[in-house]
Amino acid sequence: MKQTLTINVAPAVANTIASQIETIVYSHEPGVEVQEETIIPVTKSYLLKGLDCPNCSAKIEKEVGELDGVQSSVVNLMKQTLTINVTQTAADTIASQIETIVHSHEPDVEVQEETVMNVTKSYSLKGLDCPNCSAKIEKEVGELDGVQSSVVNLMKQTLTINVAPAAANTISSQIETIVHSHEPDVEVSEIAQEYYIPAKKQDTNTSYNNEDKKLTIRLAIGAAIYGIGMALTVFAKVPLPVELVFLIVSYIILGGDVVWQAVRNISKGRVFDEHFLMSVSTIGAFVIGEYPEAVAVMLFYQVGEFFQSLAVERSRKSISDLMDIRPDCATVRRNGELITISPESVAIGEIIIVKPGEKIPLDGVVLDGDSMLDTRALTGESVPRSVHKGDEALSGCMNQTGVLTIKTTKAFGESTASKIIDLVENASSRKAPTENFITTFARYYTPVVVILAAILAILPPILLGGGWTEWIRRGFVFLVVSCPCALVISIPLTFFGGIGAASKRGVLVKGSNYLEALNNVSIIVFDKTGTLTKGVFNVTDILPANGFSKEQVLEYATQAESFSNHPIAKSILSAYGKEIDQSVISDYKEISGYGISAMARKKKVYAGNTKLMDSEHVEYTACEKVGTKVYVAVDGQYAGCILITDEVKPDSKKAISDLKHIGVEKTVMLTGDDEKIGKAVAEELQLDEYYAQLFPDQKVEKVELLDSKKRQGSKLAFVGDGINDAPVLARADVGIAMGGLGSDAAIEAADVVLMTDEPSKLVDAIDVAKATKQIVMQNIVIALGIKSVFLILGALGIAGMWEAVFGDVGVTIIAVLNAMRI
After folding, report:
1. Nearest to 626 by CA among 610, 611, 642, 645
2. What is the mean predicted confidence (pLDDT) over 554-571?
3. pLDDT score, position 740
4. Catalytic annotation on 527?
């Protein structure tokens, strides 16, 4: 091993830590030599082309991580990449060592160091509605030369790839070939970076409707011919050749595309999929004389596929309807005239006019007008929100009553509507562990059952003698039942629907992996201000000292805080209520965790907490009242204290109680406020623990401490306002941004965004996560349970082709309908 100790340490103690470490080491191992290494790491990335073994990936990651000079090693199996942090001295020689390690596990994997910036390209896959085919397309495109990553988004019907520039020009034709090998009717086109007007959306929906109609007509014709043939056979006793004509024609109509797809896949080396299983089993049924059953299997298989298509389309539509906040156009005032243009063409600082009934196209500040805004698409709340001059107006809200004049503050791509649309649409690309397990399970499961079916059809007649027809029939029944469609389709569909259900409640989940993680949350850590409390501060008292008046203390504090956007600063400015001459203020400095220093009319002013007073050696009188205190010093002399209070949110107490009721084991609060405030809030809300007077980095330390104490297999969630809590949000297993409406930092930093200021939304998020997981587990049990029973019955000769049809298609339809409940 490397025999190293690596630490992250605060700068203040970095110079003195070495002797302490040496003392600790010698207390356990007196003979060990301790030497400090100054490390300047280099990040290097390698493409492991052809890597597809999770077990080998883990071994490669571990062994590369143990090489001299390597600080961290991460293998991304989906991207087939290895990313390392390595010291500069080892960076030049590391490539050959990595290649040796990789080839010791995977001799055929090609190792390439990545030195070029890849190109991102997106393709529209118009008509794609099969989760199983999506996964195959994603995998095969990802294996093309030059492709670093490949992600299919079923909801958006898009494929996004990162590809080397050398391969970017020729990749489109290869992608089209792969897509059409799985879905011949899907239209593939490269997406240009442009604004999509509603007419294009409407055309897309019409196309889907036409495809559905075509499939419905085909199924109806095939079923009708099949029904006529069966009726003639039963009632008119027509001869076998006539019966066969009807059955073969109906089979070609119903299953011709399936058989043709199986043939194409086999020619490309892809044998074990549902097309192969259906084709072999139905053609085999014809061979052994079970003609009606063969057609029935194909008919019901196609009906199951039709239900799958409808289910995916329904889930996609529910999310699309919810996210229909993309504005159609923007009315801009330019050169005294009003013109209607694309929102993407509007620059920051331009003036836009929004009439009643129109969506606000870009984020901005209201310059003129009063109105009520429908924020349902952003927050899930049906109660309109009033806006007046000076208020913030967010894109995606529907203007209901008055005409608004708005000055834009963000470009279209950075606006709230764009960020939310992108977040929800791309959520399906982050797969839950259960989804990944099912995909891997199906990959190995299908070849195994095909081999078992072959053994069942061949081995017993050889060992027992004779009975070939009966055992071959059992083998085909085994094949039909074993198709993993129910799992492969319903599990992604359930998570897909769960993300949509959460969105309807104003909870944005960035991926099904986070939705699943919410099920296992045992500890929830809350920031106080803006999360459990309103974050609306009011000055309630001013305590002057050393001859200063209340007005002077407030004025000096106002001057010091005049450049700050902190809620406490705003409360002081609001209490002052006068215009501030900022030209007399200089040398402004905001000291994180302490307060502010500034020069005001040639006087040095400090405004902050007791730590600031102590650090500047100011003698002060500590205020004993409950509330946030801002101590003010002028030219080194203590001037007084300003007392500011915050209110607990109305539903915070109920939210904490409900969280405990649904199984959360511990609720904890972290705050930078003093001990008295922290204790008062914690007692009011009946929290299990609280920690007060914390710096931002100390919050991370507390989260790490709590994380180390959590129950094995459980998760820790941190809930903060997403602005100054980004490090803690990133450190937690699940980072949850509270009150993310309009907050860029919240949307960027968190894994889950609660779009209102209500802590109770967290209970809704966990409820949806638990309901989703429950349906997923139900479908796994239903699919594997029923299939296991029918596989055994088929092997014993008790179940025939009709039972096999239910064991496959029937179970798939049940699972899909169950998934749609979410």
Report:
1. 645
2. 86
3. 61
4. yes
